[in-house]
Every structure is written in C-alpha cells, then in structure tokens.
Amino acid sequence: MTTDDPGRPAPRTAPVQAPTTAYEPPAEPADRSADASAQSPAAPPDAVTCRALHYAFGETKAVDGVDLSVRPGEVFGLLGPNGAGKTTAIRCITTLLPVPAGMVRVFGHDAARERMAVRRLLGYVPQQLSADAGLTGRENVELFARVFDVSRRERAARVAQALEAVNLTEAANRLAKTYSGGMIRRLELAQALVSAPRLLMLDEPTIGLDPIARTTVWEHINAVRAATGMTVLVTTHYMDEAEQYCDRVALMHRGRIRALGTPNELRSALRARRARAALAPTAPHTSPASPPFPSTPRPSPAAPAPTPPFSSSAPSPSTPPSTPPSTTLSSPPSSDAEPTLEDVFRDVAGSGLDEQSGDFRDVRSTRRTASRVG
Amino acid sequence: MSEAPAAPHPVSAEPTAAAGHLDLLLLPPRARTGWRVLPARVVAMCMVELQKLRHDRTELYTRAVQPALWLLIFGETFTRIKAIPTGGTPYIDYLAPGIIAQSAMFIAIFYGIMIIWERDAGILTKLLVTPTPRSALIAGKAFAAGVKALLQAVVVIVIAALLGVAMTWNPLRLLGVVVAVILGSAFFSCLSMTIAGIVLTRDRLMGIGQAITMPLFFASNALYPVAVMPGWLQAVSKGNPLSYQVDALRGLLLGTPSHLGLDFAVLTGAAVLGIAAASSLLGRLAR
C-alpha cells in the first residue's frame, strides 16, 4: 500500500496484495525521474532535483534514497515527523552537508561540485531562530547583503526593501533581542530575501510560534513569492499548514518519501483506497501469509501512549512493529469523513509513527527553539 | 523566475505584507569573484563586531578590569622589588606590552566558544550557506577578533599611560602595534576555533580554553625575559607566538631591542596556519 501512487489512475490491480508489501520503495519517484531525465534541453531545469539521495550519520540512515523534483515557482512542502530526515535532506540541498551518494541539483547546478553557484541561488532560514540578538534588525539584514556582494550603492535601498517586505521597517533599528519570535522569523526571511534568491528554503519556519505569528509568517512568505515568483521549499510537521499553503507536498518518513502530490491528490487517493478497502473482503486478515497483528483496534493497556507527533484525530492503535496498519484498522472512525493530510500520512507512513519520532538531540533542539521563542 | 507563480494560492487573509515595491529583490546582486571575496567577507565580519560593540560596550569595560589589576598591583609591586632583570626599563613599562598581548589573547581565545554558540543558534549555519568560502569565513572571524582585541588594547594602553608608562606616540610604530595585535589575535582566535572544531561542545572548550591560556601566558616573555627561564621553558617560549607578539609590542612601544622582522614573520605565518587549520575543521562544526 505504500506503493500506491495518487498521481496515477490505476496503481494496482489487486489491492489485496498491498498490505503484505511493507516497505517497498514508492513507485512514484521512479516515475518522476523518468520524466525528468527525458526533459528536453530547452526546458528550464527544476528548482531542485534529488536523485537517489542517501545520507547516513554512522549507522543511522537519515536519508535513505530520496527522489524529488521541485518545480520552479511552486511552494513545495516536505512533511514528516521529527527525525524523518527532512532537515538532513535540506542540508544536503543547501550544500551544508556533502552529497555522499546520489545527486542533488539546484536550477541545474550540482550541489556537490558547484557549491558557490548553488549558494548564490539560495535563501536559507534554518530551524533555529538564527538572527544575531546583539545587532539591530537592519544590521542583521545588512550582514547578508554584504556576504552576498550587494554593492555599497545598492545596499541601503535593498536592505530597506527586504525589511519592508516582511513589515519590519518600524522595528528595523531595534536590537533583535527585543523582537518576538514571529518578528525574528520575519527578520530571517528578510535576511534570506536580500540577496534575491531564486529558491527560498525554510526549515520548520513556524516551529514554536503562536498561531497568529504562524499565519503572519506564512502570509509574508506568500506575498513575497507572489511578488517575486521565487520557488519555496519548506519543511514542516504541521500538516494543516502544508495543506493550506503548499502547492505540492512530499510525505517523508524514516528517510524516504512515502507519497508525493498536491494535498488534494493525496487526499482523494486515500479516499479511493479506503473505498476499495471497504469493498474488498478483509482478505489480508484471513490470508495465512499476512503477519500476525491485532485485528481489532482495541486500546492497548500496554501502550504508554506518548504524544504522537501530530495531534491525532483518530486514535492510533498500539503500534505493532513493522506491520503497516491496514486501512481497515485505522480508517473506520473516519472513513466517510473527508480525509485530512494527516490521515494520508498515517496511511502511507505505516507503523512506528509514535515511537522513534525523533532522537533526543532532535527533540532537544526543537525545545530549545521553542523556549527561545518564549 | 519572472514568471507568475504556478497556481492560485490559498491565502488565508489578505496579504498584510507590503509586497508592492520589491524591484531590487528580483535582481540577484553581482557576484564578487577571485581575490575580492576575501577582503569583502573580512570587512563584513569586522563590521558585525564593531556594530555589536557599539550596542553593548560592557564587555570592553569588564575585560579592562583584569589588565588594570595586573598593571596596578603586579606591575607596581614588582617595579619596587626590582626582582626581574629588565635591562634598565622600569618593570611596569616592561610589563605593559605583555599585558596588552595577554588581554588581546584572552579575547581571542573566547572566539571558539562564540563560534560554537553561533553554530547552536543557527547563525553559523546560515553564514555557511552564503557564497563565502570557509577560509574566508574563518579569516573574517579571525580579523573580527583582531578588531575587538585592538579596541581592548587601546583601553589597556590608556590605563598604562595613566600609570605613567612611557610609550611611543610615533604613528608608524603605533601602526605596527595595530598589526601585531591583529595578527596575534587572529592566530589565537583560530587556535580556539580549531579546538572548537575538534571538541565541538562549549563545555569542553571552556575547560580547554582555561587550561591553555595561563600556560601560554606564563610560558612567554610577557612577565619576564626569556633569559631568566629554565632551559626547557625557554624552548617552549620560543614556540609560543605570544612571545613574538610581546617582543614586537615591546620593541615598538618602548623601543627596547627586538627582532621585528622575525616577530612579524612568525605572527603572519601563525595566523595563516591558524586560518587554514580552523577552516579545515569548520565542516565538523557545521554538521
């Protein structure tokens, strides 16, 4: 079932087989790579192209074969829980990490070999609140104007425009340490914008912000994109944001992309799968080949019930290790309701969503960010 | 890039951002190339340091306390005791260049901690995604440390002058002092950033920083001439860039016999080596 591709009309002839193929690589990336390699030389290159990207920290495979293409001008969301490999993938694309295996291109430039060329095309906002607290807002932006070689003649005007774009003109001469979390995020956006990037990369841009600040940050991202036509690649674990603001999303889990498409495509594909599953007899359960797992969604007393990474509407069953939950397991409470992106994610991610949702360091850095935001 | 966004977009409310006149944000700036990159980045980093100091000078003042005490208590006392053979110059005069070098070194040694802090805060990460080669970034940080140390040196020179130390006011010699302070600080900040690239955490670096500053200080000619040291310590002192920095400062400020050519050669070489070592280890900090 992980291989179901929302983009194609008839992904499988026999849905009965689906649950037994646990972690088969998604068919869709291969599909996309075929059409990208066939692209004519006249066609503009994709904003980001990853082919078979792998990255491992020692034994841990953070990114385990990612293929994706971000089209110029779109807002592309990379979604997944903590520890899914989103940040590592982003760091490979930004040239912060080497590309040990696979290929990464940004507007046709190889991220491993043409680092400077790639960096000139990028505006990057990391997960942490990274403005320098000891400088004013304007000075923070000026620094990035300088390191991107904005000429002295243009610098003041360009910095002013970047600050204007994120509505920080009035606060520009205050020290960044007096800013709220949302203001710092906007300041970082201005820092990224001052060099006129073609690709804006935002790593968890709204993490730890209050709902109003989240909306404001997104509105500025959208307004700037509308005005400049730049491509936006954003990672988030807020499914609602992705649903609302992203043109296309990729759902990432355990270093792999499990589904890719517009939020609507993904939702309707899940609806179709559920409809098929409802029609089909409960074959996987009676099949002797299927792995044993509890067939009734009874609440397990043994489960310590850690908070799932996404506040869940449908209660997740106790997670049997490495058995993909059948749609019949998770869907009954909401099968007739419109599925959300979160349901899609639960569906494609399979098991292990609650455990292993980010290692200690990851959670700690998230908490640190959250506490800095206040 | 100039084409319209791919699809109409669900904006929850009316866009509050004034995205009206963003014409400059559509034009990528013209890239500097070749040798011009390095000085531009060094200037950018030094500007940041100066701007920070303009907003908050507390560190400059608090860091003046220790050198003032060294000069006032240690200097005045040992001037009276006359225990250290300084070749005729009053001991407090002899000590002043040593204390300038020491306070500059203490500032520079702090830089490794700062770069780890910047890594944790995401500032370093973001700078590494700009078109700045790692060596240029490290050189920028190193010279920024030099600029900060220079301001500190001015404070110490003023204190020394108030205590009656007879120093030169020859502008050429003072220019030499500026260069010596900047080169020395560049080396020590790179030493610190190199260690930061090895140990990777602030706590460990703090311990190591404490452990190496005093030996560097005592195993140099900052407090006493190399001639009074035991043989093994003389050898250590000969390998210690701080000794060359102090020698240069003493020669320039007081006019005592010194080896300016050798001093500046060693300081330049040490700074270049330090920048190379620190930039080769910067990648470890970034991941």
Automatic annotation (TrEMBL), chain A:
Domain of life: Bacteria
Start-end of Pro residues biased regions: 289-309
One Pfam family cited in the UniProt record for this chain: ABC_tran
UniProt keyword list: ATP-binding, Nucleotide-binding
Bias-annotated ranges (Low complexity): 35-45, 278-288, 325-335
Region (Disordered): 1-45, 278-374
Domain ABC transporter: 48-279
SMART domains: AAA
UniProt xrefs under InterPro entries: AAA+_ATPase, ABC_transporter-like_ATP-bd, ABC_transporter-like_CS, P-loop_NTPase
Name assigned to this protein: ABC transporter domain-containing protein
Automatic annotation (TrEMBL), chain B:
Presence of the UniProt keyword S-adenosyl-L-methionine in the record: no
Membrane topology of the entry: Multi-pass membrane protein
Alphabetical UniProt keywords: Antibiotic resistance, Cell membrane, Membrane, Transmembrane, Transmembrane helix, Transport
This protein's record includes keyword NADP: no
Domain of life: Bacteria
Span of domain ABC transmembrane type-2: 58-285
Pfam family, one: ABC2_membrane
Transmembrane residue ranges: 94-117, 149-169, 175-200, 212-233, 264-283
Cellular compartments annotated: Cell membrane; Membrane
Protein name (record): Transport permease protein
Organism: Streptomyces albospinus
Native organism taxonomy: Bacteria, Bacillati, Actinomycetota, Actinomycetes, Kitasatosporales
